[in-house]
Design brief:
This protein has 218 residues and is α+β, with helices and mostly antiparallel strands. It is 43% helix and 20% strand. Strand 6 and strand 7 form a beta hairpin.
């Protein structure tokens, strides 16, 4: 009788443990799916409050001293999905509007983020980490003392106009990926509903990175 009871208890306990293990695996898979879907509303909410959006796919915030705190737009960071290395200009460097300010590298592939202003680099974020796209999306990269921000700001977006511009740009980017993929690979790379997953650029070759930069980062 005692042996029978022990067998039953072993079965119940083992089944309970297995249930929670499987439930944990299921939850982990669900979380992975959510993270790997690049949701436009989600990445828009990741932006710091009260920032401007530039056509260079950067965001910036004007500080009390007139300097410009600048970061990479979450949409671009999410499309890259983390970088092997990140290179920035040095503190004290003078950068011209349209020059490369940040270089993001994945192996032999590079993406150059251009400066939306001309000015001197006052500081660089020493804690910058491009390996995590989510942290990188909300981190400032450099602090610039701009030469003529009053002239540059007319081409930037904020609030509702920023949302409209990013929506339009995101659709253009999705179309770019669809056109760049062989038809048989579309479903494998693009998530359900035609959304671009985190790190989708990593699925493409160096030439596609260059074409993407020429079209969307200049």
């Amino acid at each position: 009788m005692l042996v029978v009871i022990l067998v039953i208890l072993t079965f119940i306990v083992g089944g309970t443990i297995d249930y929670f293990i499987q439930r944990k695996k299921k939850n982990a898979m669900t979380a992975q799916v959510e993270v790997n879907n690049l949701s436009l509303p989600k990445i828009m909410n990741m932006l710091p409050a009260g920032v401007f959006i530039q056509p260079s796919l950067t965001w910036s915030k004007i500080q009390d001293n007139g300097n410009l705190m600048l970061g990479v737009h979450p949409m671009l960071a999410g499309l890259i999905g983390g970088s092997d290395t990140i290179e920035t200009r040095h503190k004290g460097d003078h950068v011209k509007k349209g020059e490369t300010l940040i270089t993001l590298q994945n192996g032999a592939k590079e993406l150059h983020v251009k400066s939306p202003v001309s000015g001197d680099i006052a500081s660089i974020n020493a804690d910058l980490n491009a390996s995590s796209w989510e942290k990188f999306s909300t981190s400032w990269v450099c602090n610039i003392n701009p030469e003529n921000i009053s002239a540059d700001i007319s081409n930037w977006f904020i609030g509702e106009k920023a949302g409209e511009w990013v929506n339009e740009k995101f659709q253009q980017i999705k179309n770019f990926f669809m056109q760049s993929l062989p038809r048989k690979q579309m479903g494998m790379t693009m998530a359900d509903g035609g959304e671009a997953p985190i790190g989708v650029l990593q699925e493409f070759d160096k030439e596609t990175w260059q074409a993407f930069e020429a079209r969307f980062c200049n």
